[in-house]
Amino acid sequence: MRTGLQHSLPIMACALVLLLSACATYQTPGAGVNVGNLSRADTDIAEIMKREPASPFPARIAVARVQGTGYYSRGNQCYGKGSYCVVTTRDVETDQDFERLGRLPKISGLAAMSRILLSDQLNSTKDLRVAAATLKADLLLVYSLDTRFNVESTDIGPLGLISLGFLPNKKAQVSTTASAALFDVRTGYVYGVMEATAREQQRATVWSSEEAIDSSRLKTEATSFQQLLGEFEKLWKGVVETAARP
User: Residue 240: is it exposed, middle or buried by C-beta count within 10 angstroms (0-12/13-18/19+)?
Assistant: First the structure.
């Protein structure tokens, strides 16, 4: 009896480990926000139509990443509450990405948004423009990353749970849409909006750990952000050309 029990203990231990690993989950990140809609919260349509650009060139640009209120990812959190929150720590953005922006013509400098400049209640772009004005910025670039997880055509959704070990041979896809808008700090005028989407498809068996799933997230978010920079370069060319007209 004792010998049989001793032999069964390792088997029971292995079974317990497998059960616990199968119950492990990965929480998907929070949602992005429609940055183009943030300015509409400021006032009515008639007031929006009256806005005009007032930025001098070369211009100093403040940069802010916003996400849905309560945003959380495996390596990042958000500051503020209200209609949106601000991510003040770089996640997928690199120094090279911002150096690429800084090399564009008629840009005199870039300024990152700091939480010490922000109100804890964030409801419209005016809250960001006030912080940008403190940084002596002329323009405000606001962007957001919206990442979605899909398994066999089932959308997991923001802040959803993916059970590890229960997805054999199923198709899994991670997609990130990066969106942005460029605002005049002084008037709130919108110079333009842009968007870029990156996708990665693989077998869900690859999603065997939190690290593996988060690696897919980081990859698509980094790719979509770099594509967004390309869209910004196109927009900026038109902004500079318009500003140069008499």
Answer: middle
Q: Tell me: cis bond preceding 58? Omega within 30 of 0 counts.
A: yes
Question: pLDDT, tens digit, for every residue of 116-149?
Answer: 999 999 998 999 999 999 999 999 999 999 999 8
Taking only the tens place, the pLDDT of each residue in 34-58 is 676 665 555 566 677 778 889 999 9
Are the CB atoms for 175 and 142 separated by under 8 Å?
A: no
Rg (CA), the chain: 23
DSSP 49-115: HH------SSEEEEEEEEE-TT-EETTEE-B-EES-EEE-S-SS--HHHHHHHHTSTTEEEEEE--G
